[in-house]
Amino acid sequence: MLQIAFIAHDRKKDEMVNFITAYEEAFKDAKLYSTGTTGSRIMEKTNLNIQRFMSGPLGGDQQIGALVAENELDLIIFLRDPLMAQPHEPDITALLRLCDVQGIPVATNIATAELLVKSMMRGDFAWRELVHKYKPE
């Protein structure tokens, strides 16, 4: 079962909800995580069950980062607002760095999110099983 996290900055939350609603069927069998408000907004508009963490600025990005550090996520859709400074930018940078370390794909805009979700729907994420199986201790 794929494990996927959703994060969206304030001005990107509507875009995230619309995207997840459009691809709801693709996510129905995955274990889903999200930062607080983003997860609430998605659950209001879909039938998806999402384990919610705190809001990003209050530690939610770090909570998702902990899953990344343990290589427990397969994909993150993180719709960032590139035109707005974020008070918790160090947390965001740390999360993205951890994704690079663990080889976890991250979509930071709708175009990349769509490519990754369509790849996921085709079953192209089988390589993640090898990462989990052969992860060095």
From TrEMBL:
Lyase found in the keyword field: yes
Sequence ranges assigned to domain MGS-like in this UniProt record: 1-137
Superkingdom field: Bacteria
Residues annotated for substrate binding in this entry: H9, K13, T35, G36, T37, T38, S55, G56, H88
GO molecular function: methylglyoxal synthase activity
InterPro entries on file: Methylgl_synth, Methylglyoxal_synth_AS, MGS-like_dom, MGS-like_dom_sf
Enzyme Commission code(s) on record: 4.2.3.3
Record-level GO BP terms: methylglyoxal biosynthetic process
Catalytic activity: dihydroxyacetone phosphate = methylglyoxal + phosphate
Active site: D61
Gene Ontology CC: cytosol
SUPFAM superfamilies in alphabetical order: Methylglyoxal synthase-like
Keywords: Lyase
CDD domains named in the record: MGS
One Pfam family cited in the UniProt record for this chain: MGS
Main function: Catalyzes the formation of methylglyoxal from dihydroxyacetone phosphate.
Family stated for the protein in its record: Belongs to the methylglyoxal synthase family.
Protein name: Methylglyoxal synthase
Species lineage: Bacteria, Bacillati, Bacillota, Bacilli, Bacillales
Gene (UniProt): mgsA
